[in-house]
Design a protein that fits this description.
Strand content of chain A: 5-15%
Number of helices of chain B: 12
Helix content of chain B: 25-40%
Strand order of the largest sheet of chain B: 3-2-4-5-7-6-12
Largest sheet of chain B: 7 strands, mixed
Oligomer: heterodimer
CATH superfamily of the largest domain in chain B: Thiamin diphosphate (ThDP)-binding fold, Pyr/PP domains
Strand content of chain B: 15-25%
Strand order of the largest sheet of chain A: 2-1-3-4-8-7
CATH architecture of chain A: 3-Layer(aba) Sandwich
Bound molecules: thiamine diphosphate
Shape of chain B: globular
Order of helices and strands of chain A: HHEHHEHEHEEEHEHEHHH
CATH superfamily of chain A: Thiamin diphosphate (ThDP)-binding fold, Pyr/PP domains
Structural class of chain B: alpha/beta
Amino acid sequence: MSESPPSPRPSVLPPPAPEHLAELYRQMFVIRRCEEEAARAYAQGKIGGFLHLYIGQEAVAVGACAALQPDDYVVTTYRDHGMAIAKGMSSKAMMAELYGKKTGCSKGLGGSMHMFDAATNMLGGYGIVGAHIPLAAGAAFASKYRNDGRVTLCFYGEGAVSIGGFHEGVSLAALWKLPIVFICENNEYSMGTPLSRSMSVEDTSLKALGYGVERDRFFADDVNLVEHRIAAAVKRAREESQPTVIEVRTYRFRGHSMSDPAKYRTSNEVEEQKRRDPLLLARRELVDALGEERVKAIDAEVEAEVADAVKFAEESPEPDASVLEPTTYDGPFAA
Amino acid sequence: MRTLRYREALREAMIEEMERDDRVFLMGEEVGHYQGAYKVSEGMLEKFGERRVIDTPIAESGFAGIGVGAAMVGLRPIIEFMTWNFSAVAFDQILNSAAKIRQMSGGQFSCPIVFRGPNASAKQVGSQHSHAMEHFYAHVPGLKVLAPSFPADVKGLMKAAIRDDNPVLFMESETLYSVKGEVPDNLEPMEIGKANVVREGTDCTIVTYSRMTHVSLEVAEELAKEGISVEVVDLRSLRPLDEETVIRSVKKTHRCVVVHEGWPYGGVGAEVSDRVQRLAFDYLDAPILRVTNLDVPMPYNAKLEQHVMPNKERVLATVKRAVSRGRS
Ligand SMILES: Cc1ncc(C[n+]2csc(CCOP(=O)(O)OP(=O)(O)O)c2C)c(N)n1
């Protein structure tokens, strides 16, 4: 299988402007720290249900969302906390949602898997694998219908590439030339199943060939590279209304969810992967560009923001039952 | 007699049937190498190998359809849905293929297949992962739908489901997998379609199944202290529905409360109510009442989830309401 896909790309990346890199790093670190705090709160029983952490994958959400305009849409899976933050939602709204509080982005009704934020055009995290892919194509359809110039990014795991929703979504987006970028976050495992046991090819972007759309494939170690490569696809969507199928190769440092001990991989493998932690790589680059002092100041800011988010979540009120009917129907309840 | 957990009873039934019949195989997500998302199939890959314990990609419509096709030509698949929520993706294969093959072919082909997995609420897993899917499926002629509550019934009915020549949908419960119970040695397949009176009483009948049987038994225990004698009928099978056992009980107690997870609109409770009012009208001293999920999607927040689910307090209050009616 070819490692180097045919799509055109700059051979040497221009170095990121230091202030821009600082912002990308800050976002990645906010996500990392929020996830760590979420894991802690989960262990204390303050967060319930499923909790799928994004630790290790931060560069995908942050790099990709950096290539967007605020009006653009994002749709993703249940592994969605980091994506919501990268799209601009506040860490307070995210943490409060995890705590099931009224001040959470979805009023405490959605929880970890369902981060929605209309204000930042975060169209949600979805629990049924693959189901959100046609839905994302629907948002892109609306953009084309209204000619509003918006682009939709649709994220999914490599496990979703086997399900019908993926194929129908990409097929229709290709046929109708919708302004969308399909981004597979290939973190190597679909729950306990390595990609080699779930697909007949090892590169999910190859699926683009059958639908006649452009594709790309790269590692997510460098957030700057992620931004550039996604930006090229966003440009294609915005200017030519052509979809792209991308595979970003990444790795989740934790189990599939909090209940997964991840016995299907060795600790050696995980340690090996942690050595290319995109957050640490970005930090190193930033220290070179701006100096240790400045980066420490950013770190302190992030710690304060995350502590604030946790405090906000802890202290916020819970929703009461009056929220149930008006969130079931718009208008009178249809009993 | 041995004490087994609910999940062990399931596993034993599958293993015994696979040992006696090479046509039986298990297919689903994470059933093999991962040992089952809820450890139901633990050890089965090692025992039977990859030919008969088959890990699938996330492709419910695909592997449900593969099961149906294989069943038509003589195999006896057990298809596991990681949870029944995901069967929605395969609904067409169950509704339009499995349930229709026999009728469409004028009886030439049968579809001896088992679909199984955990159903209904777990804990705070939100609206997309908390569906009680039995109500949708019990609606469909051509399907059988089972929802046992205790390990012995789980084992006997799973063996029967595997040997049945029709599509049988087996509804388990994540919250019951660790429940223990006595299971007779050398248990034979049980007859499908028989309810069980799991507690005798004289003042009110609770008709229920799966997880809510356990909740109903707790309620009956509590009400006994207040001098209210509750009979609990565990349906075990939702289609076919053992109306004889239900009616016999209601004729004795004169009151009926149906308790299940899932929404009230057109559900199993509505079906039971119809049969009871039709077949025991003259015996009823109170309207038939239902305790179900509230009529809204399941919220994530823990307290609201408890509020929406058919909890113990609500069952208790409803039985009291049924019993107090017509008494001074
Ligand atoms: C249709 C469907 N089937 C099964 C599941 C259960 N499930 C949730 S996540 C998951 C694995 C998905 O892996 P992948 O797509 O690679 O994404 P990742 O979790 O690695 O981000 C499975 C099987 C589901 N949510 N939806």
